[in-house]
TrEMBL record, chain A:
KW rRNA processing (keyword) present: no
Species for this entry: Pseudomonas matsuisoli
Entry GO MF terms: sigma factor antagonist activity
Name of the encoding gene: mucA
Keywords: Cell membrane, Membrane, Transmembrane, Transmembrane helix
Protein name: Sigma factor AlgU negative regulatory protein
Span list, region Disordered: 140-186
Protein family membership: Belongs to the RseA family.
């Protein structure tokens, strides 16, 4: 699988748009360090826009892989109901792992510009000490600073969250889904 | 027998839909008046896997509507609105505040969406009517609103893409019409007064999109003067439900290229545009499909008054 295609797949996985085959490919490739770093970077970018990220180093990809590895392999006979179940099970594992990650992200409030700087700091030890299955892949020092690679990602990581905030402000006083309605006549 | 059942369901289906079709205006009217009720409850808000819960106290008293929101997970952030205007918000309050979606411009919406009563449901233990706000083209998302029978308050809202995937969820878990007490509407000290965000004029911006989807109209920009990024904000468009913003910024770094990403319902597309002396980055941010955002971004051109007649 080419690097570009793999990045596309990762992006699709993040957006919940990957099909089973793509998901499998991504998981197979997730042993590679570079792929994991890319995944981490995507997570940072996304989380930064949501202003929720605390620990950019939390490696969700390996957490997901670990969760799936612990699952019972479905019987090899390719009966349709079993395949269907397996698909649900994988989806459930992904959800669990992602939720586990999110709950850690949400412990505090850190504004997004700080995120890039933060990735150089040592991550906290607590998740590792607890050692639940979904966090089995969490490594404190293995993922390197995601933003430092090229100026390209830097600019986008700094500016885009600010743009999203500005955009949200355009509808701040109206409700997010009834954005057109004026404030004053509410 | 089976044929009879199909026939029966066809007849009742037609009958029901004709009855419901006549009442969509009634339901929208009911939704519009929902803020006149006092209520409180707990709702969840979810977008692209991020999940938060909030407690709401909503008091309607002598034509004044006071509403306090408290985030129940993570840091205790809160906001207070009086008559829809943001009075104060904690530092940690989300930049995209989940609010109580009770305002719809019915006539405006109908240009871009088909509004339909879809059926009944039950949310937070209460009987609800389901209203579909269905896009007339592929340049916007659909919304399913579950409206409380008793009060008209939307108890649940699902934003869905054209392939049916869920982009954003807002849903009450508990809801009751007990009037909140004064102490419950009292914000904590951490709630700081809202920055003065003024609604600007619809001045002619230096850049403009050559193409926007049908029914999207420019709206006045709201910006705080102290905000550095506000100078990059060129314009904001809305179709009555969806909204997008256009940003243009000069860029000196040659390595900064195009970018596109999607965060739940929000698409972000950046395009580098070559200028005479300096390059620009055009960015479109909005609750629209990413392909639509891309097309808008590609159409943004400098708004040179002298060149305009030639361009058209």
């Amino acid at each position: 699988m080419s690097r570009e295609a793999l990045h596309e797949t990762l992006s699709a996985v993040m957006d919940n748009e990957a099909d089973d085959l793509e998901l499998r490919r991504a998981l197979v490739a997730s042993d590679e360090r570079e792929v994991r770093e890319t995944w981490a970077r995507y997570q940072v970018a996304r989380a930064a826009m949501h202003k929720e990220l605390l620990m950019p180093k939390l490696d969700l990809a390996s957490a997901v892989a670990a969760a799936i590895a612990q699952e019972e392999t479905p019987a090899k006979v390719e009966r349709r109901p079993v395949r269907g179940l397996a698909r649900v099970a994988i989806a459930a594992s992904v959800t669990v792992a992602v939720l586990a990650g999110v709950s850690l992200y949400n412990q505090d409030d850190v504004s997004s510009p700080q995120l890039a700087a933060q990735s150089g700091q040592p991550a906290i030890e607590a998740p590792q000490a607890q050692g639940p299955a979904v966090l089995a892949g969490y490594k404190a020092g293995s993922v390197e600073t995601p933003a430092a690679e090229d100026a390209d990602s830097n600019w986008h990581e700094e500016r885009l969250p600010e743009y999203v905030r500005q955009h949200a402000q355009q509808s701040e006083t109206a409700s997010p889904l009834a954005r057109e309605v004026g404030v004053d006549n509410r | 027998m089976r044929r009879f059942l199909i026939l029966l369901s066809a007849i009742t289906g037609t009958a029901v839909s004709s009855v419901q079709a006549s009442s969509i205006e009634d339901w929208m009217g009911k939704v519009e008046k929902a803020t006149q009720h006092s209520y409180q409850g707990v709702f969840v808000h979810e977008r692209s896997g991020n999940f938060s819960s909030y407690q709401v106290w909503h008091l309607s008293k002598q034509a004044a509507v006071t509403e306090r929101l408290l985030q129940l997970d993570g840091p205790p952030a809160e906001s207070l609105r009086v008559n829809g205007k943001l009075e104060c918000a904690s530092a940690g309050f989300p930049s995209i505040p989940p609010s109580i979606f009770t305002q719809f411009d019915f006539d405006r919406l109908q240009q871009a969406y088909e509004l339909r009563v879809l059926g009944e449901s039950r949310v937070a233990g209460r009987r609800a009517q389901v209203i579909g706000i269905l896009p007339r083209d592929r340049h916007r998302y659909g919304l399913e609103v579950h409206v409380d029978f008793a009060t008209g308050v939307p108890l649940k809202q699902l934003l869905v893409s054209d392939d049916g995937s869920l982009l954003e969820r807002f849903q009450y878990a508990t809801f009751h019409t007990e009037t909140p007490s004064a102490s419950e509407l009292q914000v904590q000290a951490r709630c700081v007064e809202s920055r003065d965000v003024s609604a600007g004029s619809l001045a002619e911006p230096a850049w403009r999109p050559d193409w926007v989807p049908t029914a999207f109209h420019a709206t006045p920009l709201r910006s705080a003067a102290s905000d550095p990024a506000s100078s990059a904000l060129i314009s904001n468009y809305s179709d009555g439900l969806a909204r997008f913003s256009i940003f243009v910024e000069a860029i000196s770094d040659p390595s900064v290229g195009d970018a596109r990403s999607r965060l739940g319902p929000t698409s972000v597309v950046s395009k580098r545009v070559a200028g005479d002396s300096v390059d620009y980055i055009v960015t479109v941010v909005g609750e629209i499909p990413i392909g639509t955002a891309e097309r808008i971004a590609l159409s943004v051109v400098p708004n040179a008054p002298t060149a305009a007649p030639e361009a058209q």
